[in-house]
């Protein structure tokens, strides 16, 4: 690969001056021929309950699904090693490993994310106490036909985390409508809707909450079933699964909603748990009355709206995205900044390998994330860290900001992007990058024939891209100068991509 080393036009300096411009266990079925379960720990969890269904040894519905929905992935999680954890999505949930150094024999070595909470709140969790706000809950249906506008996960925000008294023996009688709970509605007087169990726990606000689980769901959560032991032999487990592990705690009492099922309006009893959602449809055949929603698929689809997969198949050398490259800038008002390309990362945009650049700026360490696609150079977002390298903010652009075109020619590119971050509500704005003209620029290290690029103003901090209101870019060398206003500019002092030897 061309290492991009170039000799600047130093002979022009006196004339121009400074111009400020996994493997498969034996004896069990493999999940799928197209997508593999990537980690043996995930495979072991799947084999126990799903392999009997796949092999016809157990006539019941899936707990995870017949196959993975994704391949091998990592997602950002601040408390995990290198701030990333292994995950894999299935129809019914997500498997994850938060601490790979923990005991793999621990039943909680593999966990299942709190997907219901995130979908209802619209808060994407990237750490124990770190959330990216999307502004509202997911506009994805919880029950009923695919295009059903109600109830969606966002509607459940009206009922969750509101502790209830013990109603054991009473019939579930709350009805959720698009306008909220309707005390005048008349739901079915169904005996399986009678509350059978009351559970209390320490809620997210730090005080005890209690919720009631109806008979239909309590029977389902405690039913026996066929599993495979570690040798791959079928055996009966009673109960089939640890419901706290699979479902998490309930976060609301069960409620009724009237929804279209196969284009026919029906009453459905719904109860959200931390990890999954259960539904009870009395009109269904007995074996399909209690169902577990495809929350893994729902969550993956929702998350992908804010983390779109990147096209990174373009010529990265054109945009100076070289491994281990560095640039040293001097600020005209005082101080230096150093930019360094680091190893690529798969966790900032899960499923995409992005080029990461550490920028040691005056306000701390900023890491920017880039891709070089067939249409040019894209900025996907950035991190800001303090002096101790603790994460202060994370910003993700959806879609990524289109910064430079694929061919070097004057071009004006506008991206209508939404920025989500740790510190502010989501913001949507049109950001324009205008590649204006070729221009000679003199810097501390030499004179370059560059492209002058102008950026539109941005109105909020979340849309801040820190590329400068104007910057000068030379193909294969990168940015050689930028400025935000008439007072301060940054000029290239040195770069590993330059051959400065005489």
> Class by helix and strand content?
mainly beta
- Total helix count? 6
**What is the makeup of the main sheet?**
12 strands, antiparallel, barrel
The overall pLDDT, averaged over residues, is 90
Return Rg in Å. 27 Å
Strand content: 35-45%
Annotate the secondary structure layout.
Elements: H1 13-16, H2 40-54, E1 73-76, E2 84-90, E3 93-97, E4 111-112, H3 115-121, E5 123-127, E6 130-133, E7 176-177, E8 180-181, E9 195-202, E10 208-214, H4 215-221, E11 225-228, E12 234-237, H5 243-247, E13 255-261, E14 264-272, E15 277-280, E16 290-292, H6 295-306, E17 326-331, E18 336-341, E19 355-361, E20 364-373, E21 376-385, E22 391-405, E23 411-421, E24 427-443, E25 446-455, E26 470-474, E27 478-483, E28 489-495
Antiparallel strand pairs: 1-2, 2-3, 3-4, 5-6, 7-8, 9-10, 11-12, 13-14, 14-15, 15-16, 17-18, 17-28, 18-19, 19-20, 20-21, 21-22, 22-23, 23-24, 24-25, 25-26, 26-27, 27-28
Q: Can you tell me about this structure?
A:
This protein is mainly beta and about 500 residues long. The chain has two domains: about 10-20 and about 310-495, no CATH class; about 40-305, no CATH class. Helix content is about 10%, strand content about 35%. The chain has six helices and 28 strands. The protein has helices at about 15, 40-55, 115-120, 215-220, 245, 295-305; strands spanning about 75, 85-90, 95, 110, 125, 130-135, 175, 180, 195-200, 210-215, 225-230, 235, 255-260, 265-270, 275-280, 290, 325-330, 335-340, 355-360, 365-375, 375-385, 390-405, 410-420, 425-445, 445-455, 470-475, 480-485, 490-495. It has a twelve-stranded antiparallel barrel. A four-stranded antiparallel sheet has the order 1-2-3-4. Strands 13-14-15-16 form a four-stranded antiparallel sheet, covered by helices on one side. Helix 3 packs across helix 6 (about 295-305).
């Amino acid at each position: 690969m061309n290492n991009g080393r170039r000799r600047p036009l130093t002979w022009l300096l006196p004339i121009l001056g400074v111009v400020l411009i996994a493997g498969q266990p034996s004896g069990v079925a493999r999940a799928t021929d197209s997508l593999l379960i990537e980690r043996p720990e995930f495979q072991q969890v799947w084999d126990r309950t799903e392999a009997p269904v796949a092999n016809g040894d157990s006539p019941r519905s899936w707990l995870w699904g017949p196959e993975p929905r994704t391949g091998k992935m990592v997602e950002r999680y601040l408390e995990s090693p290198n701030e990333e954890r292994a995950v894999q999505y299935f129809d019914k949930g997500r498997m994850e490993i938060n601490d790979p150094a923990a005991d793999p024999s621990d039943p909680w070595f593999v966990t299942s994310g709190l997907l219901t909470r995130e979908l209802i709140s619209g808060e994407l969790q990237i750490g124990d106490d770190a959330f990216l706000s999307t502004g509202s809950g997911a506009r994805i249906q919880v029950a009923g036909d695919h295009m059903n506008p109600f109830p969606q996960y966002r509607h459940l925000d009206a009922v969750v985390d509101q502790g209830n008294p013990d109603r054991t023996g009473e019939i579930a009688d709350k009805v959720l409508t698009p306008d909220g709970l309707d005390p005048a509605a008349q739901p079915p007087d169904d005996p399986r809707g009678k509350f059978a169990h009351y559970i209390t726990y320490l809620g997210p606000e730090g005080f005890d909450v209690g919720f009631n689980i109806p008979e239909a769901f309590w029977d389902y959560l405690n039913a026996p079933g066929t599993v495979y032991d570690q040798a791959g032999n079928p055996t009966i487990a009673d109960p089939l699964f640890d419901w706290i592990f699979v479902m998490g705690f309930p976060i609301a009492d069960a409620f009724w909603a009237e929804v279209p099922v196969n284009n026919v309006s029906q009453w459905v009893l719904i109860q959200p748990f931390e990890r999954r959602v259960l539904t009870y449809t009395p009109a269904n055949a007995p074996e399909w009355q209690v169902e577990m929603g495809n929350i893994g698929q729902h969550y993956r689809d929702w998350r992908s709206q804010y983390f779109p997969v990147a096209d990174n198949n373009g010529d990265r050398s054109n945009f100076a995205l070289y491994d281990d490259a560095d640039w040293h800038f001097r600020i005209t008002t005082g101080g230096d900044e150093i930019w360094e390309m680091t190893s690529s990362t798969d966790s900032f945009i899960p499923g995409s390998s992005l080029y990461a650049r550490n920028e040691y700026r005056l306000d701390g360490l900023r890491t920017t994330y880039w891709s070089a696609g067939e249409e040019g150079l894209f900025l996907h977002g950035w991190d800001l860290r303090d002096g101790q390298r603790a994460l202060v903010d994370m910003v993700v652009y959806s879609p990524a900001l289109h910064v430079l075109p694929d061919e070097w020619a004057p071009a004006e590119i506008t991206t209508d992007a939404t920025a989500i971050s740790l510190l502010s509500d989501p913001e949507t704005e049109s950001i324009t990058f205008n590649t204006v003209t070729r221009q000679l620029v003199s810097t501390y290290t030499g004179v370059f024939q560059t492209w002058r690029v102008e950026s539109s103003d941005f109105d909020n901090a979340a849309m801040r891209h820190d590329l400068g209101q104007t910057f000068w870019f030379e193909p294969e060398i990168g940015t050689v100068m930028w400025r935000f206003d008439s007072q301060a500019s940054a000029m290239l002092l040195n770069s590993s991509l330059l051959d400065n030897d005489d």
